[in-house]
Amino acid sequence: MKIRVAKDAFAELDDLMEGASEVEEESEEELSVHEEIESMIPSEVSVKHKRLSKRPLTAVAINILGTLAYTADKAGNITAWDLSTMSVRWKRPSLGLSHPSGHPALKSFSKMPNRGPIEGHYGAVMSLSVSHDSVLLASGGKDKILALWDAETGAPVESFAMYRDTILSVRFAPNNRSLFTTCADRTIRLYDTDDKVLVQNMYGHQSAVLDIAVLNDNRAASIAHDGSVRVWRPAQESQLVFRPDHNPDGVAMIDSQTFLSIGEGGQLCLWTTAKKKPIATINIAIDGAWLTAIKYLPEMNAAIVGDARGHVMLVDVSPGQRSMEVRRVLEVPGVVTGIAAAGDKVVVSVSREHRLGRWEALKGFTNGLARIYFKAE
């Protein structure tokens, strides 16, 4: 993998050849919101919450039709929910907090090692993702196993156990069944889930890779404990490296040239691959709360951001104006541990504690699923 810092790689980006300007060494621009952004967020927004589990929820996913939502928890359970009735469609219960031998043995139906379907996870499941055609559900967690399930029935399909540490994020590409995973062992892996093979290992981060956002099978952005944000082009084996002035804790891609990141200090940053620093930054922390999750909604040109104090913020994003503005603040009874969307159908997993640790369990917070409803004018 060729590691290319942003300054050296701009000339090689095909989609930036026209109109690309020389990279400037500019300080991060703190923007108070003066410009009026034409909002596409519906005028009426409401939220409904349902308590689901005694175990802290760690992740949420939704199918393309917005009919099924999937949740995972720190015990290792995976549950599919019918969103029309909030009843359980299927459940894959945990096999225990840890395997007696330290690592599950996989059934192999080929000559390839570390392969084969599993009946469930051991320990916390940290991330979920549904394929673009709603056929496969991917999961990964503390047992170091990437598992594929039938999204409709929950039947096991395949799994991979070549990881050396906790799997922290799994994301399907929205245009095909390419699957990206990130791990605490500092690696990013790309799979072809049609052929069920590992396509590529991607290296560059110097510590645990916390999250990845995927635009397509050849463009993704990741953040890690090393404080960097990296934009990847797997087919070219290249990456751009960006270093915000804060510890990033989440990332979302807008298009091939622009992306968003959130920080523990409440920063929401808007980036372009043509600049080494954010083109816009606003601090949206409420009472100093840690920002914990982000999702971009292209239909509304808006981002949904959750924090550790029970707030979900709807933010208008205008890359052309280099502006962002908080339009709505919704309250949910828990730490936001995940946000998933299918069109204008948005689900948010909330928990009594952060998905990565137990620094605090907040009184009055619950483990459940919040659904956000939009009503047009």
Tell me what the structure shows.
The chain is an all-beta fold and 377 residues long. It has a single domain, classed as 7 Propeller (Methylamine Dehydrogenase, Chain H), CATH 2.130.10.10. Helix content is 1%, strand content 46%. The chain contains 1 helix and 28 strands. The chain has one helix at residues 6-9; strands at residues 44-51, 57-62, 68-73, 78-82, 87-92, 125-130, 136-141, 146-150, 156-160, 167-172, 178-183, 188-192, 197-202, 209-216, 219-224, 229-233, 238-242, 248-253, 258-263, 267-272, 280-283, 291-297, 302-307, 311-318, 323-331, 335-342, 345-351, 368-375. The protein has a 4-stranded antiparallel sheet with strand order 1-28-27-26, with no helix packed on it. A 4-stranded antiparallel sheet has the order 2-3-4-5, with no helix packed on it. A hairpin with a 4-residue loop joins strand 22 (291-297) and strand 23. 46% of the residues are buried.
What layout of secondary structure does this protein have?
Layout: H1 6-9, E1 44-51, E2 57-62, E3 68-73, E4 78-82, E5 87-92, E6 125-130, E7 136-141, E8 146-150, E9 156-160, E10 167-172, E11 178-183, E12 188-192, E13 197-202, E14 209-216, E15 219-224, E16 229-233, E17 238-242, E18 248-253, E19 258-263, E20 267-272, E21 280-283, E22 291-297, E23 302-307, E24 311-318, E25 323-331, E26 335-342, E27 345-351, E28 368-375
Antiparallel strand pairs: 1-28, 2-3, 3-4, 4-5, 6-7, 7-8, 8-9, 10-11, 11-12, 12-13, 14-15, 15-16, 16-17, 18-19, 19-20, 20-21, 22-23, 23-24, 24-25, 26-27, 27-28
